[in-house]
Amino acid sequence: MCPSAITLTVTREEHHFMVDTHNNSYPLYSCWEAWPDLGMRRIYTTVLFTHIYVAPLALIVVMYARIALKLFNNGRRCLAEDARGRYISPFHDIPIYADGTENVFNMVVEVPRWTNAKMEIATKDPLNPIKQDVKKGKLRYVANVFPHKGYIWNYGAIPQTWEDPGHKDENTGCCGDNDPIDVCEIGSKVCSRGEVIKVKVLGTLALIDEGETDWKIIAINTEDPEAGSYNDISDVRRLKPGYLEATVDWFRRYKVPDGKPENQFAFNGEFKGKDFALSVIKSTHEHWKALIAKKTDGGEINCTNLTVSDSPFCCSQECAKATVDAAPPCKAANAIPPEVDKWFYYQQN
Known about the structure:
- 26% of the residues lie in helices and 24% in strands.
- By secondary structure, it is an alpha+beta fold.
- The chain has 2 domains: 1-34, no CATH class; 78-328 and 340-344, Inorganic pyrophosphatase (Inorganic Pyrophosphatase), CATH 3.90.80.10.
- A 5-stranded mixed β-barrel has the order 6-12-13-15-14.
- It starts with a helix and ends in a 5-residue tail after the last strand.
């Protein structure tokens, strides 16, 4: 805008005047750009138009083209990127803590509330994309065990945690389930798959899933309008009566439609409070640190990451891009089977 300001010229019109409603006259001034060369004006106008309109429009087109390409190529596989568009692992590269006090955690949303597709961080795949679980060649959906519809919370995981299958938990007597620690977020907003939110931990439930320890952290989105009212598991019981009981019922019975027995719990299905939950999370974080540093055997877990500089599995962005480019594109997403919306009824034990 500087060239325009420099050439700005104001002159008084000698034979023209302004007249108001009371017939008073005033001098008239005109303002214009006195360019010494009209060619310079055309160049300036072209440059100004390019910067103000063309460049932002091109950027928007590129952004949406990238999103469309990503969705087209990946189908039911959701790759993670940081704010600068660089590939990352949602398992290893997103920090566990969302603030410096170590009381607020990041949560990666895998399954939005009320949906049925069993999506999860693929721990054995390079860069650990979020993808739908497959069993016997079919995409997995959780059944609607009456009166529940799909997942009854926003369901996901805390990054940089790992329930070590080689470590027997002193509280449950069972080893870990080989996954990041799970989170049930109880806020009012239905989140999006792949969204990373900040959560306040309130308590935990110790599920024993086919003989493995599978902690379920109860938390609330810090941006929820009612988050300030929740500080421990007792607040959930007081402010959302029946929600914790429904949570136990959901986890107890969700595998029954697949012909499996009801799940069991440590502590007789009782929830543990915030302090206990925090100690469990920090323990799984220590197990993850040993995993990413190759101080423990992770088996088939893929530890490729881009931000943990002291990890032997740390790779470059070029390597990550090559990994993504080499992956076969997913086929078009299948339609959701109609039976996914059916209720499943059975007599409880």
